[in-house]
Design goal:
The structure holds 2 protein chains of 2 kinds.
Chain A (H helix, E strand, L loop, with lengths): L1 E2 L10 E5 L7 H11 L3 E6 L2 H13 L3 E6 L5 H12 L5 E6 L14 H29 L2 E8 H4 L6 H21 L4 E8 L3 E2 L1 H4 L5 H8 L5 E2 H13 L8 E4 L7
Parallel strand pairs in A: 2-3, 2-5, 3-4, 5-6, 6-7, 7-10, 8-9
Antiparallel strand pairs in A: 1-4
Helix pairs in contact in A: 1-2, 1-9, 3-4, 4-6
Chain B lengths: L3 H9 L3 E7 L4 H10 L7 E6 L7 E6 L2 E6 L4 H13 L2 E8 L14 H29 L2 E8 L6 H24 L4 E8 L7 H16 L8 E4 L2
Parallel strand pairs in B: 1-2, 1-5, 2-4, 5-6, 6-7, 7-8
Antiparallel strand pairs in B: 3-4
Helix pairs in contact in B: 2-6, 3-4, 4-5
Classes of the chains: A alpha/beta, B alpha/beta.
């Protein structure tokens, strides 16, 4: 199921990024950013081939990455991962949940099964990840948990009813979780990625038409390395000044 | 033209608007609405979710109130109840959805199965009902769909989930409003600080608010409002 690569440098702690796909995606960029700071990064995603590529690139550049394939909606698989993490000598510094893709649909033609699938990937997986992460963070009396949100976390738009239901639930969950766990020195944050992302998911959608759509919007979309820089900033925040929600959008994006 | 004629005749058939209230704890609200619409002779249907009822089961019928139990997640059962309403000469002109925010006590953390059940009883049921009534309302380009929600302080894991599901239904209402307002369907999200069906004053206030929203002219529709916060 998973593959461990030995690393040349000593890590300062473990960072787990769940929901990593293409190398040109938010998850992979966040992995690279934390690896750059000497963290041992668990690159976790559904497709082993993809997470292996991301981990291999990090390892080739002198970082320390572990490729790990799992289904983030599967409680048992998550439990196995977190039991493994709990047994590691390093502290669990941060967990980033980046699961759940945006699939538009016509409301009256969408099946209930589709709505449930979207709810599981956007919300249920986040809850399961949070439950396991918080158990370790509470023992450590510290930790950072970051969730990736979207425009749909704030606004319900036509053709995105299923996605907005999951993402809005996640936002509410994350913000309430932040208030509950702040006194325990656990930093929970929700990042609203409000616009098209300049990554493979958009660029390769509809045989390349996604790239065209992104470019014709005039802003070029959100840069993934810049998004990752904001995750790193959140992790670094001093306990006296924590951000619990951060919105990110290109300068010309309407909102 | 041949296709248009049956539609024209259909639209000229005499059907009467009715109210559909969906939820597990809405008896008080239903009774108050029956009182409100007595002079209009507008029937009130009260739908309650029952996972084992694949065929709609009329539970009680008296004084303008028809209580029906059915599996709200069974598309055939929901379609069947809408057809029965239409056969009775009614069309759904106002639908009020009250999600069931009851979670099991003393269960921390909640299991995947419990969370799935909770989603099905709240968010997914809201989708199922919305699809059925909007389809019917579109034929007349008229109707009001009100989703109720609650907003209370989060003190436990159970509160976390009830608030998350409320946020989910709020987002659904917003998405549907943006899609269906231009087509004549009024979609509203109405949030209360808490749900207390035994609190007569609260239910009366809610009933009056729902009625007010239903009567709003197309030029001046509300999409979201809060009560008692």
């Amino acid at each position: 199921m998973n593959q461990v690569n030995q690393a040349p440098t000593q890590s300062t702690g473990i960072v787990v990024v769940i929901g990593v796909g293409a190398e040109q995606g938010i998850g992979a960029a966040v992995c690279r950013r934390f690896a750059h700071e000497q963290f041992k990064v668990y690159v976790v995603g559904r497709t082993l081939n993809k997470v292996e590529k991301v981990a291999a690139t990090i390892n080739a550049q002198g970082g320390q990455a572990v490729a790990y394939a799992l289904d983030a909606e599967n409680e048992q698989q998550l439990q196995t991962l977190f039991e493994h993490l709990n047994d590691q000598p390093e502290a669990l510094a941060a967990v980033i949940h980046n699961v759940g893709g945006n699939i538009p649909s016509i409301f009256l033609q969408s099946s209930l099964k589709f709505f449930s699938q979207m709810w599981r990937s956007t919300f249920l997986s986040a809850v399961l990840v949070a439950q396991h992460s918080l158990a370790i963070f509470q023992k450590q009396q510290q930790g950072t948990l970051i969730f990736t949100g979207a425009s749909a976390s704030l606004r319900g738009k036509p053709f995105f009813a299923a996605f907005t239901m999951g993402k809005s639930a996640l936002r509410s969950y994350a913000l309430n979780l932040a208030a509950l766990y702040r006194p325990q020195n656990i930093h929970v944050a929700h990042v609203v990625v409000d616009g098209m992302v300049d990554g493979d998911r958009v660029n390769k959608a509809l045989w390349g038409l996604g790239r065209l759509a992104r470019l014709t919007r005039g802003t070029g979309g959100l840069n993934i390395e810049a998004i990752a820089e904001n995750y790193w900033m959140l992790y670094q925040q001093n306990v006296d000044l924590w951000t619990h929600e951060l919105d990110l959008r290109p300068y010309q994006e309407k909102f | 033209m041949a296709k248009l004629l049956p539609q024209w005749f259909k639209s000229k058939q005499k059907t009467k608007g009715c109210i559909v209230i969906v939820g597990n704890d809405v008896q008080q609200l239903s009774q108050l609405l029956v009182g409100q619409v007595q002079c209009d002779a507008m029937p009130v249907y009260q739908l309650q979710h029952d996972p084992i009822q694949t065929q709609p089961q009329i539970e009680a019928q008296a004084e303008g109130l028809i209580a029906v139990r059915l599996n709200l997640l069974d598309a055939t059962a929901v379609k069947s109840v809408i057809q029965q309403i239409q056969k009775a000469g009614h069309f759904v002109d106002l639908c009020i959805f009250q999600p069931d925010f009851v979670l099991p006590e003393n269960s921390q953390p909640l299991s995947t199965e419990q969370l799935e059940n909770y989603w099905q009883n709240t968010g997914l049921t809201a989708v199922s009902i919305a699809q059925a009534v909007i389809r019917q309302m579109l034929s007349k380009q008229h109707g009001t769909l009100i989703f109720l929600g609650t907003q209370q302080p989060v003190e436990s894991e159970r509160d976390l989930f009830s608030q998350s599901l409320s946020a989910s239904i709020r987002a659904l209402a917003q998405s549907l409003a943006r899609e269906f307002h231009p087509k004549g369907i009024h979609v509203v999200y109405c949030v209360l600080s808490h749900w207390q069906s035994a609190n007569h004053a609260l239910m009366q206030s809610l009933q009056q608010t729902c009625w007010h929203l239903y009567q709003q002219p197309k030029s001046t529709w509300s999409q979201e409002l809060r009560l008692g916060l």
